[in-house]
Amino acid sequence: MKLIMSAIELAIMWIVIPILLFGGAPFSSPVAITVIASVIIAGSLLLSVYSALVVFYWSGRLPTTSFGPETTVQSGPYRFVRHPFNAGFILFLFGMGFLCGDYWRVLYVSVIGALAVIYSLLQEYLTSKRVTGYSEYKEKLPFMIPKAGKQIPFDKSTSIPWQFIVASFVVKLVILFILPSKVKNTKVLRDRRPFVIALAHQTHFDGPLIFYSTWRYIRFVATAIYVDRLGLLGWLAVIPVRRYAVDTSAIRQMLSTIRQGVPLGIAPEAARSWDGRPLHTKKEIWKLFRMLKIPIIPVKFFGVQRLWSRWSKTFSIGTSTVEFGNPIEADDPQLEEKVMNFLGKEDPTFKLPYRNYKHIEKLIWRCPSCGAIASIKSFRSGFSCSSCGKSWTKPTVNEVIQLHDKIMPGNMGLSFPIEDEVVFNGKSVKAKMYEDHAIIGDYRLDYNVIKNSSIEKSIEPVFGIGSEMVSFVSTTSALKWQEIVDFQIKFRLKTENYHTDLWG
Fold first, then answer.
1. Number of domains within the chain
2. Does one domain contain both 28 and 84?
3. pLDDT, tens only, 366-391
4. Does 204 share its domain with 244?
5. What would the DSSP string read from start to end of 80-127?
6. pTM of the model
7. With contact defined as beta carbons under 8 Å apart, do 223 and 270 qualify?
């Protein structure tokens, strides 16, 4: 009912009043006035639309009396004045008044403008009664006209970047055309309290699908190396986390964000899956979830793995399903089990073939039949081995998973040394993997000093040594390096306190 009343309010403001004021007007102003009035009209519409979107993304409500926000909005134009939406409406009417050519109507506009000011004061009165902290906000900012020195500093925890709103609309439009998706159980997102969206990170579609599924402001958490390299992620208020250190700055940003009621988006595995199955999750993630003390909402994407897998450089057009799980409280003793069970739900599309198999040698880095390394040659409809001649035509996602399991160290023997061409410190060099160390150009990497491993950009193996990182670009398969080195450390050297995404 409140939403209907709000729609009526907006219709009266932006449709009924302009028609009553300017219906039958000659619109014959001189060119100079027409230009100025047009600029005022365009600017006022932009101001009001932007203000309404900020209110909606922040609070899920609208800048009206009957369906106003239940929390203080201090983002976008609301950092400078208390009533930018209504100020835009008044400017719009004056712009129309000058444009119409009948300047007597400007007198009527003045009357309506005065009523709009009274309407704004009524909104303030009602808001002060129901929103905690609004009185303090009211003292900080002017009513409708900005004043020098009177503004709220921009902070991504309390303000929505305009880039986030623009990106949200663009992504929704793009997904609608290339990946039309069914969204299930979105009712769990309606609660305005903060929560963590825990997503099973399979493909580059994952983030956009969250944008597509909700109209809320969400701050995603991502590896700092990606945020540093992709400026757009910083504009979208992504919180960067240093992978190989206790990042207190990131934790402070998370806590500041949830204090404002803003949800966080976190992939528990902290990496994209290579074959669609969940990876192992560090115990620190579950400690973080419990420390945040807010509900966890798992989300699973169905149908995306075969359209844009991590090893593929291209995506295919198709359909998908986004399913949100019911909230799980942070103090639930079965938190980890419940989240991972949901993220590990069976995907029916895994019984179907991939749309394109180009570059699958990044995943299937040796022949599942003869074991030859770097012998797989991929093509659109499958792949084959240049060593033994075995070929696979349109295997399903599940069949590819089985082939990947087959070539894993421990399931198929290895013959050392294993050679590769890599780019290290900007130079192309020879590299060799041995049982307990690797030689990369002139650099010796001993496995017993490695603390953890990861893969950046799907081409760059990264090995953590204390507070430092050793990284390079593999010209064949980054996954080959991680799977072989991790296996040697975990099961041959039996190093304790070593975490790998592959075996935990």
1. 4
2. yes
3. 999 999 999 999 999 999 999 999 99
4. yes
5. T-S-HHHHHHHHHHHHHHHHHS-TTHHHHHHHHHHHHHHHHHHHHHHH
6. 0.89
7. yes
